[in-house]
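Re: Re: token formats

Sure, here are both.
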Amino acid sequence: MVYIEDMKLYSRQIFSSEKFIGVLLSALLISAALPSVLSAEETGDSQIPKVLSILDFTDNSDNPDFLWLSSGLADMLITDLSPAEITLVDRADLNEAMAEQSLALAGITDDSALQIGRMVSADAILAGAFALSGGKLRIDARIADVTTGEVLTTASVNGPETNVFPLEARLALAICEALGIAPPPGLGNPGTVSQPAAKAYYEGLALQDSGDVEAAKSRFTDAANLDPLYAKPRYSLEESWQLLKDFRALRQQREVNTLWKKAEALKIRLAEDPFISDSDLIMAAYTAGSPTDNPSLGSCPNPAVCLWNLQITYWEIGSSSVEYFEDTATEKATLQEIIRLADQADAAWPEDDWLPEILYWEVMANRWLEEWEEVRTGAERIFIQWPDFRMAWALEDMYEIALEKLGG
């Protein structure tokens, strides 16, 4: 592929630049010193469970189109509550405990739920149910002490059946408020804006759990096609390739997934308010005394460089997806995201010294989307505002191609 070769050339140039080397060396010196992460503070409130196990929700809807919510709601709550002031039982450990007792995660009795909670060393379990009526979805949840069976708190939400994500976010917020814990930042982010994509993903999980790996792989692929920026199906595809013993695809998917994980970590860093620099993160981590494998560490000395690294990571995801899986939908989506990020940076940091680096990637993305007028205007802006831009030679090439395509 031509653009992969161009990217390799660009990479050689970028890693030889003095500006990049200065940032990189600073980040490496910091990250080498203290490899650790932040930990949550303990509240000391005896009503707050230290370890919580979230079970699949009971389906009272009698509608097969909503069966996916059984595991979907549990998984989204786990994602939302993971950064909170409680420890959540890993879903794999929960599945193992259920298998030992020959139980299904959804629809188990109260007694067996408490038993499972004790097996996974949880202090409390969260169990719930959902039902449909007249186009409305109602979700109920309760948290019970695994030793006494006492219900510690309950929460309930209802709303349009097409608004699953906002309903789940409200439920997570209600649970935090009922337990008296601070809502984690970024609460209510299911990883996709597409409810059909989430449905396909969770249906794939159910199929994979039942042993129908080919059908599961198909649903994971459907989910990724419905929302090419949805990372969760990619992680499950890795497991599918392993179960199918397609080791080439497994290796390739693992490589792409490493990039997805970095992109997700960078997005979390950018969403933090206030922004936490690499140096501040490491110092706080040192105080907490916990090791870290955060893939964003060393990429975020400030918000602009963090966003620039996210652009590059999306570029690598797109090019790898095409090279390994001929996945042009993901390539197009990542290019569009690079452009969206550039527009965001342009509005937020118009005077930042790193802005031309970010805008360069916007020109690159438009070049591969063949948006030639955008390439022309973007290149001209950089030439005029930053005449000494270090990648001018590459910008000149794209500019000349754009003029040729535009007939001028």
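Second one below.
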Amino acid sequence: MDIPAGVNIKVKANVIEVEGPRGKLSRRKMNAAIRTSLSHMSNLIKDVTKGYRYKMHFVYANFPINAS
């Protein structure tokens, strides 16, 4: 796994901490899911370097939804 410059990764017991230019994130790791932990680390690295945004879509069937 390639780690970009400016990203620090710390692994303590069952917690993975990733710190980058856009913040710090952490996640607990499970021993039975090594591949999943690697995917989580990859996503955490992407989030602290490029950032992320949540999108919400409203879906309705009978009555319109008002959101503010």
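Strands lie at 8-12, 15-20, 23-28. The chain has a mean pLDDT of 83.
- S.
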